[in-house]
Structures are given as structure tokens and as C-alpha cells.
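BUG: 3D viewer hangs when loading the predicted structure for this chain

Environment: internal workstation, default settings.
Expected: structure renders.
Actual: progress bar stalls at 90%.

Input used:
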Amino acid sequence: MSQQFLKYIQRGATAEVADAVAADPTLLTWRDAQGVSALMWSIYSGQTIIRNFLLVQIANANLPLDLFEAAAVGDPAEIVATLEAAPDSSPQPLLQLDPSAASNQVNSYSSDGWTALHLAAAFGTPEAVALLLQKGAKVDAVSTNPQTNQPLHAALALSRNPETIQLLLQAGADPNARQTAGFTALFSAAAANRRDLAELLINAGADPTLTNTFSQTAASYARERTHTELADWLERL
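C-alpha cells produced before the viewer hung:
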């Protein structure tokens, strides 16, 4: 049933998810082989209705969220509650891959390679991002999955929230940091045709002349996607 449940979530089959949980409430705590929860899958899949349904059911069952779920949901109160709980009370084991952060839960990695700050930047809220930064989250943490990206990359690729991006930049995020294939955050702004975000990055020191491993600049990347006006602007910088 667990794999079928995951398929329901990914398809956005709301009625089937509700029926499955009613028949088997343990699905609320189900995790896949990598340790990713049903709630996280609803977030990764962009299934907002199912995410909200699972959150209500989890709350009704008095089940705790782990740090990564709380960050991805963007709930500061849940983040605080998780950080204040005993480390061994988290539903998901925390992978301490950075020895300097061994006693700092906020910089732990999820089973699929993200820090809480990555998840809050990608899916959560500026309030969650601000709280995690206040608690000592590393703005330059690199994911341990194939993306090898930083929270700023995650924010530009997914949430594209200007307030979140500004918070990360103010906290010292490097606008020229590279992720897999040499992409910088500016490439994501270019792909999304978001001049407002590109301007935030440029004002923070982003270099529009940098190329990825395919010898593309952010301008050529934008032009390839027919974002001509943005490409012209980037080329004039």
C-alpha cells in the first residue's frame, strides 16, 4: 500500500489519499526507502491540497514534524519546537555530515541531502528562513545530493521569493556560488525571466559574465528560452 500511497500523492489523487489515511492512519508516518515522508513528498510534488490535508491529520493525531518538514512547511513555531526537542525525538534521523556542526541540529542534513535552510528557502516562508538564520543555519551549506547547491540556488530555482532571496544575500550568501554544471543563481533568475530577482543578485555582486560548463552565460541562457528583453539587459551590464 505504501508505494500506491506515494503514487496517489504524486498524482494529486486527493480522495484516494484521504481514503487511504482513513483506512490506515500509520500512513501519516510512512517514509520511503530513502526516509522521505509522505508530507515531504506532497511538498516536493507541489500537491498543496494534499499537503494541507496531511498537516491537519498529523496535527489531529498529535504527531510531531521533523525539522525538515517544519522548514519546508515554513512554520517558525514548529521549527522552534523541533529544535528545542531532544535530538533523538525526531521522526527522521539527522545526518551530521559536517563535523563542526555535530552539536548543532539546525545544520543537520536530511536523508535526501538537504539542510533545513535549503528546504525553507525552496518551499517555506521568509519567516522560516529568517528564524533558521537566527538559529545559526549556514547560508553556504552545500547539499549532499547531485544538485550540490546552496540555499540561495534552492530559493532561485523554486520559491523565487524576493524577501527570502534578500535575507539569504544579507546573511552572506555568495551570488556567484556554483552548483552542478557550473550554474549560478543568476541562471535561475534568467530561466524564470525574473529581472527583479536578477537585479537583486547583480546588486549583491553577481557576475553576469560567468559561464556554466556548457559555455553559456546567464544572458545566453535567457535568450535560449526566448526571454529576449532580459537577455539584452544582462548583456548590457
